[in-house]
Design brief:
homodimer; about 160 residues; alpha+beta; Alpha-D-Glucose-1,6-Bisphosphate, Chain A, domain 4; seven-stranded antiparallel β-sheet; 4 helices; globular
Chain lengths: ~160, ~160
């Protein structure tokens, strides 16, 4: 799956797969971990079905603000196994006009989850790009730091769900 | 569904829905009607599942040739009801680099089929574009003539399948 034009983040999360899936797919949870702090998500829409909207607004230091964000769309949902979404298409699969900054190139994210021993979850996020230039742009934008930081935040959020359960 | 940025072709086909679906979804049939004659399809790949490849090579008069074509991808398959595919993404949902000519803008096609009276099929094909400029480009390229002509060819091909059945 992962090829020359891709970026990959793999991590074993110290949280059970049911809670990791819940933290990833419920908008009220996703909103709390999806931006690497001190950045934060102030608006988020996720309609968990192929063709459903995935849109978020990220704000941060020095007036950073993605605005309402270009709505992307969900492509594939396999319960507690896989979630695929893209910024290349909007709701109901309409092609998107690309935006600015981190929305300047189209990307598809393929996120997979697998049960690991000891109540842990093998988590893999692959970002697919159309070419090496877009991959490089994304990498220089801080892909590894950013996606790594939010993986830790995802793990922490999932753990708080366990306490509540 | 169809909005300002879309182009729509609607037609009641004189062929039963089972055969229309078969003519649309089996590569060996699709190849025979998908290009408006005298254009023809010389290569075609269709893997009928979300993320599966949809690629065709069209050749025609005066040396017209799309080459091997940019592979698009299937988004949604609902048996004898709906087929959605896009040129914005390639196999396994990777964002596509846009090509030239009729591949210069991304497009999503939403094709729906409904049983009509007298063994006929209500057929609707909607082309979704990212903006009005792409819609206009597609329209001037001859959308209505082209998609209308192939709808007739689809109807004829489906009828030959009935004779064989």
């Amino acid at each position: 799956m992962a090829g020359d034009h891709d970026l990959v983040l793999e991590r074993t999360l110290n949280a059970p797969i049911d809670l990791v899936w819940e933290a990833y797919t419920k908008p009220e949870h996703l909103k709390r971990w999806f931006a690497p702090r001190p950045y934060e998500i102030t608006e988020l829409e996720l309609d968990l079905r192929p063709g459903g909207i995935f849109r978020f607004r990220m704000v941060g230091p020095d007036g950073f603000d993605t605005g309402h964000g270009t709505p992307g769309c969900v492509l594939e949902v396999i319960d507690r196994k896989k979630l695929t979404w893209t910024s290349a298409l909007g709701p109901e699969f309409r092609p998107n006009e690309m935006g600015e900054g981190c929305e300047s190139f189209p990307m598809t994210a393929v996120v997979t989850f697998e049960d690991a021993s000891g109540g842990r979850t093998a988590y893999k996020a692959v970002a697919l790009h159309k070419d090496a230039a877009d991959r490089d742009t994304h990498e220089k934008m801080g892909f590894h730091d950013g996606w790594g930081t939010v993986a830790t935040q995802l793990e922490e959020l999932a753990a708080t769900l366990a306490v509540k359960a």
